[in-house]
Amino acid sequence: METKPSSSNFIKNIVIQDLESGKHKEIITRFPPEPNGYLHIGHAKSIVLNFELADEFKGKTNLRFDDTNPTKEDTEYVESIKEDVKWLGFDWDELYFASDYFEEMYNWAVHLIKKGKAYVCDLSAEEIREYRGTLTRPGKESPYRNRPVEENLQLFEEMRAGKHKDGEKVLRAKIDMASPNLNMRDPVLYRIVHASHHNTGDKWCIYPMYDYAHPLEDAIEGVTHSICTLEFEDHRPLYDWIIQECETESQPKQIEFARLNLTNTVMSKRKLKQLVDENVVDGWDDPRMPTIAGLRRKGCTPEAIRNFCREIGVAKSYSVVDAQMLEHFIREDLNAKAPRTMAILKPLKVVITNYPEDQLEMLEAENNPDDEAMGTRQISFSREIYIEEEDFMENPPKKYFRLFPGNEVRLKHAYFITCNEVIKDENDNVVELHCTYDPETKSGTGFTGRKVKGTLHWVDAKNAIPAEFRLYEPLILDEDSEGEHFLEQINPNSLEVLKGYVEPNMKEAKPQDKFQFFRHGYFNVDTKYTMKDQLVFNRIVSLKSSFKIGK
Ligand code: ATP
Ligand code: MG
Fold this sequence. Notes:
Layout: H1 10-20, E1 28-31, H2 41-56, E2 60-65, H3 75-87, E3 95-97, H4 102-114, E4 118-121, H5 125-132, H6 149-161, E5 170-173, E6 188-192, E7 206-208, H7 210-221, E8 225-229, H8 236-246, E9 253-257, E10 261-262, H9 269-277, H10 292-298, H11 302-312, E11 320-321, H12 323-337, E12 340-341, E13 343-344, E14 347-352, E15 361-366, E16 376-381, E17 384-388, E18 408-411, E19 416-424, E20 430-438, E21 455-456, E22 459-460, E23 465-472, E24 495-502, E25 514-517, E26 521-525, E27 535-541
Parallel strand pairs: 1-2, 2-3, 8-9, 10-11, 12-25, 14-20, 18-21, 23-27
Antiparallel strand pairs: 4-5, 5-6, 6-7, 13-24, 14-17, 15-16, 17-22, 18-19, 19-20, 23-24, 25-26, 26-27
Helix pairs in contact: 2-11, 7-8, 11-12
Bound molecules: adenosine-5'-triphosphate and magnesium ion.
Adenosine-5'-triphosphate binds at residues 32-34, 42-43, 45-46, 66, 228-229, 259-260, 267-270.
Subcellular location: Cytoplasm
Catalytic activity: tRNA(Gln) + L-glutamine + ATP = L-glutaminyl-tRNA(Gln) + AMP + diphosphate
Protein name: Glutamine--tRNA ligase
């Protein structure tokens, strides 16, 4: 893998301090997704941060499924998450499931009850909310708050045994109903959910809440630095309370950083699932999705994502990153890797009237002018070719250097041609051009007789392979689309499908092969729609962007 990031950040500084002071001999981080959807580029930020931090200090990183919510989770998501983490280039040290700790978590809850630090409460969810109070109004104590320990133990056991219905009872921590921090006003630790779990099946009908489960998961695994996003900052006192009152052997610390937000997309599994369920997109791996699977299918490389995550860095303040910055890293990576080739997205036929009818010649072209090692290829040329519809104008404005009647242009890797005649259909649409070529001007022969200003790409009509091209625009029109109304902001033109042609030698192209199409940008062979006789390309990015790093 590439060289390690050297830039410093506040989390790294904490780690350095903890190692220098001897607080920890080795650091352990974790990436803890809930398997309730596919990973997105925001998760990539967390993955890169956790894995590279541990790596830099010779520590460990575990992949842990935070699967404490049976109704939303699924093994499909577990599998996709594993695949995505690997594809991003990371190897976890251990693979854990929070649901494997349900028994230990239960025992700790019993421990809390015995200490008088937890109680079974019969208030409904709505009543609990009412009793909690607000930032300006203190909470009210539950009438069940002072239940005797024995009764709590018995009721909690009954909850586990399935004697009560969903919502009838909860287990709550007994902390402080007057705390200025709402999270500390007797938070719920366990709820009753009669539902099958993807891992534990029907073994349990009580499930721990995130705020209770997460610190214990970290403690069980010996995690030293539990890195999470800023929304959990106000939950940290509860995290510390759980660790302290459960008297766990290891004492993990929670550290928060700002989550990644990108322009013109949504970044939450819940919202992304809505886009999938409502068929706004073509599945979790739709190339317009900010999911890792979508970015992969579109043609983005793991190197580009890693470099992007390093560049955006780690901070404590909220910001929205311009999606063009990710594109910058994709271009940078593919510029070095993707062979150049020609594709015609909107074909216009050109007949070269002075080229012999049955002649076919092979022209040599380099695959990457910046990198000789990428070799050359042979492109066939004959009497009929396709050029791009937009490369011809019958009545051009000044400074138009492409093809128009009477003008001469260069065909990339081939000859100069001059347009002599425009053929139209009954509706006055241009359907064909008649041109002549000059054999003297063959590319690579050192012809210097005269210069032309325009260079067009083309494909040989006889041998070109038909292909479909899928061009993408941002899915969401609103730049900062973290609101709830994202479904009203869907861009109706986020996908454009074109039918054209690619060079004959592309018949060997396989799904996930990436190319730079002259003037059109970088394209990836689609994994889903490419068939034996049907090549489908996704545009990854166009060639140019106005975006500059450090702008
Ligand atoms: P979502 O709302 O998309 O489901 P989440 O935070 O609930 O996000 P988890 O599966 O719980 O998703 O997240 C796993 C890890 O990824 C957590 O540590 C979380 O902090 C981190 N993470 C999630 N979204 C982002 C983001 N946009 N930027 C950085 N880290 C993120
Ligand atoms: Mg979540």
